[in-house]
Amino acid sequence: MTVAIAGAAESDLGITGMSILALQAQAVTRALADAGLSLRDVDGLATSGVSRFSASLVAEYLGISPSWTDSTFAGGSAFEMYVARAAQAIEAGQCSTVVISYGSNQRSAGSRRLAGVKETHTPQQQFEAPYGPLFPISYYAMAAQRYLHVHRAEREHLAEVAVAAREWALLNPRAHRHSAGPLTRDDVLDAPMVSTPLTVADCCLVTDGGGALVLTSLARARDLPRPPVVLLGYGEATTNDGMIAAGDLLRPGSADSGRRAFAMAGLGPGDVDVAQVYDSFTITVLLTLEGLGFCGPGEAASFVSDRRTRPGGAFPLNTSGGGLSYNHPGMLGLLLLVEAVRQLRGECGRRQVPNAQVALAHGTGGVLSTHATVLLGVDR
């Protein structure tokens, strides 16, 4: 059995004043409407970030009793992982229609904290926290410093990632920075330094928002209103929790998750028409592009140069504006998938990538800790 995405939607975004559950319900009902289905059709649910019992809480709020759930917490990569697990559950006959959902009101609530219990006995708490790092930026800044040193790259190369994201956001009416105007490299470099070498403009937004996907069998999806988006391959990798356990800061787990996803799909990096890559920080993008094989180690700095990833460039990247200029409600992974689906369905208006046939979505969680890659394609 082949699995497809039949529906995709966002909740309200930005500064909403809504509760987490209200944002979840909004995203779910919109995605089901997009698929031509209703809550009565849902027998599988995957969600995270609400509480320790996210799936049961959201199911109760929606008034459904699913036969399969997943509420694995893996940070921003969780939703790409859910796509894999949902597909496996559908193929195994555990359920027929899975909704993957997420919502966060962290901007309205004035907090970056996701729901959960704070552990105090972990190696990270014992051996890293006493030195006062800013979580998670100081960890990513460490990787960025290492990257600039080893590969003789410049901060301008990091800045290009943010500049390109803003250009895409200017084409997306739903982007938080849609009306903010262009961003220049000097704007990024001259922004307040947060954790060297990363400035405020190297960091993702803090917003409310959420989204949802509806997955079912390809055969069933073909009878629904929207063109089905076919799941071609997936892969994941977990490398570390704290930074003291990271073997090599410059070899992210995307090297393994991407290899597994491409092998399953029978494709390679050259087959990807549009990519949605987690951009919690500008360095995340450079490391992930190299890990996924779009360029070699140390080559991402030059790979993103010459407007390659901007609108009209040879490698369309983060076409919604990404976490840097579109939206970042605590975890972005689900919204990367929503944008990938819309690009393959040709629904993106001024930011549409012509004739997009294969899309990649890659989530990163923690401090370069968890990694998950999904490849999607049009129904041929």
TrEMBL record:
One of its GO terms (molecular function) is acyltransferase activity, transferring groups other than amino-acyl groups. InterPro entries: Thiolase (IPR002155), Thiolase-like (IPR016039), Thiolase_C_2 (IPR055140). SUPFAM superfamilies: Thiolase-like. Pfam families: Thiolase_C_1 (PF22691). Gene3D superfamilies: 3.40.47.10. It comes from the Bacteria. Residues 235-377 form the Thiolase C-terminal domain. Coiled coil: none annotated. NCBIfam families: PRK06158.1. This is Thiolase.
